[in-house]
Specification:
Layout (H helix, E strand, L loop, with lengths): L1 E5 L3 H12 L5 E6 L3 H10 L4 E3 L2 H5 L6 E4 L6 H10 L3 E4 L7 H14 L3 E3 L7 H11 L6 E9 L9 H4 L7 H17 L5 E7 L10 E7 L5 E7 L8 E6 L2 E6 L9 E6 L2 E4 L7 H13 L9 H20 L3 E2 L6
Parallel strand pairs: 1-2, 1-4, 2-3, 4-5, 5-6, 7-10
Antiparallel strand pairs: 7-11, 8-9, 8-15, 9-10, 11-12, 12-13, 13-14
Helix pairs in contact: 1-9, 4-5, 5-10, 6-8, 8-10
Bound molecules: NADPH dihydro-nicotinamide-adenine-dinucleotide phosphate (NDP).
The site of NADPH dihydro-nicotinamide-adenine-dinucleotide phosphate has 20 residues, from α1.
């Protein structure tokens, strides 16, 4: 497929250009940005043939089949709607939109147009998370009692822009990281949280948006989920633990963009180091999106997954803002 990249962004240059170009027969042919200066430089630096500030111009190219959107979050909805209206398959960054209504409209429009819609939740594409899911699904920990996710990182200097000071652009740790933890929880436990309690704060980095959050989620099975997200923790590391009636999984360093981390399973039989595939997370995600666009399978995370992860995150923010337990409304999904 030929791709239009919308947003001259960090994630596009660091991971997604490579992920598309690793797929046989796929390349990025257009880049679209709001800045005439930056888009030209970006296209040249990344050997992309066409650069424009006019999304409609790129979408009018009949040789384009797919659009990847990695602009700031408030732009996702309008750009996705335009791409869908032009009949292109869409892979959109998380969070899908600022509001649940935006996300629902995008995904319903893609369904009506018959195009593939993917949400770029990379963690469920990793060998580590897939190995953990398999341990749970095959009963190695018995009945899951609890999941603890620690995802408190230190936002690198070059990303300390809109994420920490622009609520209108979708800044804040909740739209940025809680959406990922919601997707991980849904992927690992194969069920959707039903309600949340939460607290959030600004602990030195956030200016007008939260930079840290803790929450507890109720699951239909009775399992309890506890998550911690932050932009301000230089030395905390990341990971998750799954505790069940027959065993516990300790996964350290796995909430990351790289195929790294250590997984151990502890049961009555002792401690076992769990092997996993170290493939590139983004290459895997794009590969599944490309296959789905060719009629094979579904994207690793589809539009419904994107609506659901955003719904959880928005409920966490509401719970933290009000101090009340919030029942999650999935917007019809
Ligand atoms: P960036 O801040 O790098 O880019 C976002 C937008 O900011 C770009 O689209 C561009 O706007 C503008 N921009 C980029 N560089 C500059 C600059 N030097 N000066 C002025 N403006 C600039 O964001 P990220 O790449 O970190 O995030 C983009 C999206 O991807 C977000 O939705 C985020 O949530 C998501 N994301 C997803 C990840 C994942 O693993 N799934 C990981 C990281 C981010 P323009 O559109 O005009 O080109």
């Amino acid at each position: 497929m030929n791709w239009v990249f919308v947003g001259a962004s960090t994630i596009a240059s660091q991971h997604m250009l490579n992920a598309v170009r690793k797929q046989p027969g796929n390349d990025v042919t257009w880049v679209v940005s709001t800045s005439p200066d930056r888009v030209g430089v970006w296209a040249k630096d990344h050997s992309i043939a066409n650069a424009t500030t006019n999304l409609a111009e790129a979408l009018a190219d009949p040789d384009m089949q797919a659009v990847y959107i990695s602009s700031t979050n408030e732009k996702h909805h309008a750009q996705a709607m335009a791409a869908i209206a032009a009949g292109k398959h869409v892979l959109c960054e998380k969070p899908l939109g600022i509001t649940q209504a935006e996300a629902v409209e995008m995904v319903r429009a893609a369904e009506a147009a018959g195009v593939i819609f993917g949400t770029n939740h990379h963690l469920r594409c990793s060998g580590t998370h897939r190995a953990i899911r398999d341990l749970i699904a095959t009963g190695r920990v018995g009945k899951v009692l609890s999941l603890r996710i620690h995802h408190a990182v230190h936002l690198p200097g070059h990303l300390q822009g809109w994420r920490i000071n622009d609520a209108g652009a979708g800044g804040g740790v909740i739209p940025d990281i809680v959406v990922h933890d919601a997707d991980v929880t849904r992927f690992l436990l194969q069920e959707d949280p039903t309600s949340v309690v939460a607290q959030m704060t600004s602990s030195g980095m956030g200016q007008g948006v939260e930079d840290s959050c803790m929450s507890v989620w109720t699951m239909p099975s009775g399992a309890m989920v506890m998550t911690h997200e932050s932009f301000t923790h230089p030395f905390a590391g990341s990971g998750l633990q799954v505790h069940g009636t027959e065993g516990s999984i300790f996964a350290n360093g796995v909430m990351t963009q790289q195929p790294v981390g250590e997984i151990t399973l502890v049961t009555g039989a002792g401690t076992e180091v769990i092997p996993y595939s170290n493939h590139d997370l983004y290459v895997q995600g794009v590969s599944e999106f490309v296959a789905a666009s060719a009629g094979q399978g579904r994207p690793a995370a589809d539009g419904s997954d994107g609506v659901r992860s955003l719904s959880v995150a928005l409920s966490v923010r509401e719970a933290a803002a009000t101090g009340q337990r919030v029942d999650i409304d999935y917007g019809g999904f």
